[in-house]
Amino acid sequence: MPDQRLTHMLRAGAAAIALLYAATAWSHSHLQKQSPAADSAQAAPQEVRLEFSEPLEGALCKIEVTDGAGKPVTASKATVDATAPRILQLPLGKLDAGSYKVDWNVVSTDGHRSKGSYRFTVK
């Protein structure tokens, strides 16, 4: 009987730790929508617009767009939309036909960091 009780306690403890870890992971800001869309081929976009699951800390967020050779194509900084704090945007200049990569790094208002990247093509 003592072995069963110990096994039960260990399983309950492991389940509690798993739930705590999952709750922490869910609290991070996740990318929900992006424009231009990942892996899309389209006319040159005017901006990169990323929508996240949590409000963002604008001063701590960044978007960088690079061309196929890895050269940055933007000079301005990304800003959080004043009327929608879950949206990070970056105006783009004229983009030539080719492949581009968007790298993003954000901090949500609860202090959690998230980052990622995706590609799109200009026809």
Automatic annotation (TrEMBL):
The keyword Signal applies. Keywords: Copper, Metal-binding, Periplasm, Signal. It is found in: Periplasm. It holds the Pfam family CopC. InterPro entries: CopC-like (IPR047685), CopC/D (IPR032694), CopC_dom (IPR007348), Cu-Rt/internalin_Ig-like (IPR014755), Ig_E-set (IPR014756). The keyword Nucleotide-binding does not apply. PANTHER family: INNER MEMBRANE PROTEIN YEBZ. Belongs to the CopC family. NCBIfam families: copper_CopC (NF033814). This is Copper homeostasis periplasmic binding protein CopC. It comes from Cupriavidus basilensis.
